Amino acid sequence: MTTTAPTAPAPTTRRNDLMLAAFRIVVSFLFACHGLQGFGLLGGIDGQGTAVPVGSFPGWWGSALELVGSVLVACGIVTRTAAALCSGAMAFAYFVVHQPTGLLPLHNAGELAAVYCWAFLLIAVVGPGSYALGRTFRR
Predict the structure, then answer these.
(1) Residues 83, 126: contact at Cβ < 8 Å?
(2) Over the stretch 29-62, which tens digit does the pLDDT of each residue have?
(3) What are 50's strand-pairing partners?
(4) CB 133 within 8 A of CB 76
(5) Each residue's pLDDT tens digit, 93-116
(6) pLDDT band at 24 (very low <50, low <70, confident <90, very high)
(7) Per-residue CA distances from 69 to 82, 85, 97, 109, 110 (Å)
(8) Cα torsion for 117, 115, 135, 129, to the nearest 10°?
(9) How many Å apart are CA 43 and CA 22, to the nearest integer?
(10) Distance of CA 69 to the CA centre of its chain
(11) What is the spatial distance between Cα 33 and Cα 112, in angstroms, rounded to a whole number?
(12) H helices of the chain, where?
């Protein structure tokens, strides 16, 4: 039986892990900002600081999911589940809010919902990568 010594990760692997972490963190930060708008922060939902009514569906609950989900994804904690929920929330937003007003995202102002949906779906499938707090909890 032959054993081989563990090798250091290839530079390409390290670079890919860093890019995945950067992508995960940046997308999550922007998504968190979007969620904060529902609570009246960062200009609110109308640019005047208006918040969605507390407990209203889907506005308030969507904002809460955006905020909590984005923090979990950014930190790399239960990343796949949180990213799948964020992706689903944006699919819901696209098909319920945007799609009825026009067929294409450019016609119904749904580009952001579609992009977030696919970005979080990618994170849900690929996972958080090497640079995630969730990895320290599993040890």
Answers:
(1) no
(2) 999 999 999 999 998 888 888 889 898 888 899 9
(3) 44
(4) yes
(5) 999 999 999 989 999 999 999 999
(6) very high
(7) 5, 7, 20, 23, 20
(8) 130
(9) 26
(10) 7
(11) 13
(12) 11-38, 59-75, 79-93, 105-108, 111-126, 133-138
For 58-77, letters b (16+ CB in 10 Å) and e give ebbebbbbbbebbbbbbbbb
From CA 120, how far away is CA 73, in angstroms rounded? 9
pTM: 0.86
Question: Which pair of tokens denotes residue 110?
Answer: 């749904």
Nearest to 120 by CA among 6, 50, 33, 27: 27
Q: What's the DSSP call for residue 46?
A: T
Considering only CA atoms, which of 125, 35, 131, 121 is closest in space to residue 85? 121
